[in-house]
Design goal:
There is one protein chain. This protein has 3 helices and 14 strands. With about 200 residues, it is of the alpha+beta class. The protein has a domain of about 140 residues. The protein has an 8-stranded antiparallel sheet. Strand 11 and strand 12 form a beta hairpin.
């Protein structure tokens, strides 16, 4: 009996609550000088079409193709540690040319201890300062002259993770996934030259 009374009481309260609400007309709300129809009681605002930002990264199969796109003939390494070959060539916007070199071990993996190492080489004619995208904190940061060019070395006293410099209007950076000796870094820098044509 008490359950029936409770049920009737709840039902009557629900009816009273529903009856206290007034229904307003769902006329079209105006947006600016035009009306927007309502759908299911929810106003739908007009939206601009989705805009997808173009990627700043462009991938190339050769340095030659990348240099034509970016608009300058880059100075490129002619000397690298044994076993390093080009893995990828990209441009970032039309500001930076990046070439990644990867170590590909031969038959004897013990000939070169740099297995799996990468070297990121970047160059630009439009950007100044550090273009390496390096975020590491280095114990040693020193500037030294290499054949008359000021080069900043970052890493340790003997080993280098990053080298950066400007030569002939081109900004350069060499980022070593595994550090190399400073002498090795200098040798690479001395042999970065502009060529008439590039092959991958």
């Amino acid at each position: 009996m008490t359950t029936k009374i409770k049920t009737l009481l709840v039902a009557s309260l629900a009816c009273v609550a529903i009856g206290s609400y007034s229904i307003t007309s769902a006329h079209d709300p105006s947006v600016g000088n035009r009306s927007v129809p309502m759908t299911g009681g929810i106003s739908v605002e007009p939206r601009e079409p989705n805009f997808i930002m173009p990627s700043p990264v462009h991938v190339f199969t050769t340095v030659e193709a990348a240099s034509e796109y970016i608009g300058f003939r880059p100075q490129m390494p002619k000397l690298l540690p044994v076993g390093f070959n080009i893995q990828s060539v990209i441009t970032l916007e039309k500001d930076i040319l990046q070439v990644v070199y990867v170590y590909e071990p031969g038959i004897d993996p013990y000939v070169n201890k740099a297995g799996g190492a990468l070297i990121f080489y970047r160059t630009s004619t439009t950007l100044k300062g550090d273009i390496s995208d390096d975020r590491k904190i280095h114990k040693v940061i020193e500037t030294e002259s290499v054949d008359g060019t000021k080069v900043t070395f970052k890493g340790g006293k003997k080993m280098v993770y990053l080298a950066s410099w400007i030569k002939d209007g081109q900004n350069h950076s060499l980022d070593f996934y595994r550090p190399v000796t400073r002498d090795m870094a200098k040798a690479i820098i001395r042999n970065i030259v502009e060529e008439k044509s590039h092959t991958k």
